[in-house]
Amino acid sequence: xxxxxxxxxxxxxxxxxxxxxxxxxxxxxxxxxxxxxxxxxxxxxxxxxxxxxxxxxxxxxxxxxxxxxxxxxxxxxxxxxxxxxxxxxxxxxxxxxxxxxxxxxxxxxxxxxxxxxxxxxxxxxxxxxxxxxxxxxxxxxxxxxxxxxxxxxxxxxxxxxxxxxxxxxxxxxxxxxxxxxxxxxxxxxxxxxxxxxxxxxxxxxxxxxxxxxxxxxxxxxxxxxxxxxxxxxxxxxxxxxxxxxxxxxxxxxxxxxxxxxxxxxxxxxxxxxxxxxxxxxxxxxxxxxxxxxxxxxxxxxxxxxxxxxxxxxxxxxxxxxxxxxxxxxxxxxxxxxxxxxxxxxxxxxxxxxxxxxxxxxxxxxxxxxxxxxxxxxxxxxxxxxxxxxxxxxxxxxxxxxxxxxxxxxxxxxxxxxxxxxxxxxxxxxx
Length: 430
Ligand code: LLP
Prior knowledge:
Elements: E1 15-18, E2 21-24, E3 27-28, H1 29-36, E4 40-44, H2 45-60, E5 66-71, H3 78-86, E6 90-93, H4 96-104, E7 112-114, H5 121-129, E8 134-137, H6 140-153, E9 157-162, H7 188-196, E10 202-208, H8 219-235, E11 241-243, H9 261-279, E12 285-288, H10 292-295, E13 299-310, E14 316-320, H11 329-333, E15 340-341, E16 351-356, E17 365-372, E18 380-384, E19 404-409, E20 412-417
Parallel strand pairs: 4-19, 5-6, 5-12, 6-7, 7-8, 8-9, 9-10, 10-11, 11-12, 14-16
Antiparallel strand pairs: 1-2, 2-3, 4-13, 13-14, 13-18, 15-18, 16-17, 19-20
């Protein structure tokens, strides 16, 4: 790999610095801002393909096959979903809406894994009628409701049971899910009991576990993968399928380092093959549900500087034309980013700045202590690593419309989500 300036490390794989500043696959970010307006989500197709392909290739090497279900909650722009599906990856859907997105992107029911800790009748019905490959049960009530729909529609449904194994991971507590007390899944003992006593119409295929998200130390994920077959054998429950969820982290700032998704998937497969050999049991089919690790690094959010001012405590604000409406992660998880000026990412900095969002909330601050080269009104600020959980979590507080999104592919930019117009904001008022 060619040497990349440190400031560019969290940016997509194709990022380089040209005469007009940062380019993705040869397309300049400032040109994109001028053409499509800001705030703007930009996704680099090559970065997505590389990661999707690496995971797919790793699964192809698994002894009893493997399936990847991309977590739509991390990114559901249809233009991105089609790209991921073209690499042989299905979808993990957590609502009737996400099932609809998968269908619109051409992902068939046979490639869907359905989730949710509080699935509604509508969600479950959508799962059954699209012929979802697997529904992951979050408890007994979920099973009973799903079984009733199966009886009524005269179908059967393959299911997994989600368990919370009580394994802690090093991530923000708001995105940890596998610990004791999690709202997701059931205890291992209850999970085994549920699988043994499923209502008629549901066919138990195995277990699901998802420990959390933005996990940079993958060892707990490997530990869970090693533990599950041992547990299934001890309980005498079927393990034709083992779904290990997602959770692998990405690099948000230059000082972070993240595992490679393809290598991580190989590690999981090896861990399971080894433990199954030790236990003398057949190797299950492996499912993984990566979200962030496929799309996170591909994204850049562009903002325009609206104003700068130095305030009473001597700090300087740089206010931009976006904020918590397009990036909920700072407010929710204290997420940190390493933004740069798109036109002069490597220029000498003259101080540190606080980047303010435009919403009427003091908590709407996108980044603090950012070293920048004298930002001016009209400059384009580029936030890297915003491909996952940004567009999908966007909202229209203060009645700012949600941003547009473009996909850079093969040296050209394609609009994949149009900007939300003011008129769109009133489309539901009756
Ligand atoms: N499978 C299940 C059952 C999940 O709940 C999730 C994410 C995934 C897979 C995908 O996880 P990933 O590979 O993307 O880590 N909004 C938060 C992240 C919430 C994750 C929710 N579940 C954030 O922005 O950090």
